[in-house]
């Protein structure tokens, strides 16, 4: 007669039912460890008491994270300036098995900085009673300082079997021996439960709508400075998403006119937390006030103008909020491929055909990314393995794969689809190592401009370091397809570029400051050398050159017309194009930039090692902010010059062709239409723009165009590295056998 242990050995089952479990009744017994059913954990986060102070004012801005098995399953809202916060928030969590404890971590929210740890606690789920509300008091501890008292968190928890998922199970010996179908149904049930739980995690990544927010202005804000004014800016937060507006100096009635988008998740609350702050150099920013927007109260597909009174302060904020249906995003296995289905492919091609130019201008194209596998990844765990997962990002759209545990050559075989809003976006694919009790470890990253993608080609991309300046260990295999409407893409090039709201704050770096200074110096030296060259013509250092310049000067001035300016730029673009196609490419790779980026990487590594040793410069906040401002200005000036150069160097052919089309149009317009008529039309448009559209966001089409052209640093970051055949696991295996 067979016993359950033999069944486990023979069938290679992942676990065994020890006994019949009936959850239909009201049994209050603790759940056995071997129970494999899916459970629903209903948590009410009540409040916190006597939490730790982490801010300079002796308070904190606490919020709570809940994690199971290393995965974050819920995050509470932020309670500002309170050590005894009251949340009264409810969360519904699906749990596959109860071996993993519920991990509670409390943090102090600091916008733009790393949030401060305020304590953590564990809850053993196997000790909970089924179908019975339980009040839980958890004492927060710091693992590094176990004797410190960090306060308590109060919860109410109900653990119930998931209805329809957990059924009576009886694997007696007679049934095991007598029925093959019992074992077969056992496998089917386990696989179904695993797939359904996988679907739950997958759906938690997908957004159900897009929230478009336009921050218009502030009215009668509270004066925080001694001069009776403020330097206000606004922070927005929706779940994990956050956005920070620009700073408006010395005003109580700021005009921002900034637009950005958030994703709206069905599982999470639709509450946007908004706080207004006064920027103070050299000390902590002053709090002006806060307000909230309940998205569930707003109708969809309609723009709402909101005038929000600031609580705990003075004044109003004026917003435009629009809720729209989500763009097409999806995660699927390789067996579900939209582009291989002929009908779906034809529908996608028809959606972005030239005949549908003016249909939904924001929907520029379609992107499909197959994340197939990785090889030879970096070892991140003490076991000599890693637990890799992959994050795929396109602007503010972010999706991730499942984790493959204890593997340096993982296979994901997942397909991600995105809608393209800007063809000049860069696809970022990052590989991380999952860690249970801390943030994931970085393993490698690639950045791929959409315009450089070759459709349908499976390629091995060498993983790069965080700065994208050099290789790290491993390669990742991707297959990418891009379908887009060229006219829509061209029109979108002339409007402001979408800003990433999850970008890291700039920090002061000596190497970065030096790099930006040298980049700007090279741009300035181009102008200086041109001025010296022109001046040498006047000095007749070279008589033939000066004579030719003199004749050219007379000819140009005598025959000059305004249309000749875009015509000359058009000829310059054409000349560089023919140089490139003839093999006489005059574009040189800037080795100076690469050297500086390597120096920056070394400096960053050094900073990471010494992160706990605060340098003197980090303590002088005023000097640091001035240096960061100078560093950013140098970067902007240098990038501006490099982008102009790269436009004429055909670094991005799509943009260079677009520039040629624009120069042709300007040449024809300036040739046939008198200048005064052009200036008249321009002036009328400028003067009446606010009357026609009061809430329009000002933009400069030329600067928007140049923002899409990569700088020299970005050219280095986006450059694809060639894989080293010796790093292939298969190659190494053959060498070892030899």
What do you see in this structure?
The protein has 738 residues and is an alpha+beta fold. It folds into four domains: 38-162, C2 domain (Immunoglobulin-like), CATH 2.60.40.150; 209-324, C2 domain (Immunoglobulin-like, Sandwich); 331-493, C2 domain (Immunoglobulin-like), CATH 2.60.40.150; 510-595 and 618-718, no CATH class. Helices cover 31% and strands 28% of the residues. The chain has 16 helices and 25 strands. The strands form six sheets. Strands 17-21-18-25-24 form a five-stranded antiparallel β-sheet, covered by helices on one side. Strand 10 (232-238) and strand 11 form a beta hairpin. Residues 1-36, 164-203, 600-619 and 729-738 have low confidence and may be disordered.
